[in-house]
Amino acid sequence: MIKLSKLTDYAIVVMSEMARHEGTVHTVSLLADRTGVPAPTIAKLMKSLTPAGLMTSHRGASGGYALSRPAEAITIADIVVALDGPIALTACVEGAGEECGVESLCPMRGGWDKINRAIRSALEQVTLADMMAPVWTPPVSEPAKVVARGNA
Fold this sequence. Notes:
Elements: H1 6-20, H2 28-35, H3 39-49, E1 55-58, E2 64-67, H4 76-84, H5 111-124, H6 128-132
Antiparallel strand pairs: 1-2
Helix pairs in contact: 1-2, 1-4, 2-3
């Protein structure tokens, strides 16, 4: 199963909440109250998202964090890379920093790059704003009622 980390999932939730109140500086405790994500987790997220250029930090009595750019300009790929590193299904991707013990013998060498590029491209096409868009679900229709007729 391909799965995003919990931190990435939480980051999307927190950043979506921030985007709903664009232009506002948010404290960790306020974001925790609004999202249900624990404050220590939000603080940890901010420590990764700020150096990645996705957040700006504001110091002082009315300090906190703000998105560094509009939700339409932040891709899911940006968030994944900031928290999880290079987007890859396997360790054999440029920049992953992990060495493979059988890389020189591997018949798949280079083949995974196609898949990694496809996934990266797909995540680059989805923005934070896209994730915030309401999801339409068709209305649930009630089953037709059968009326029993007696013998008259």
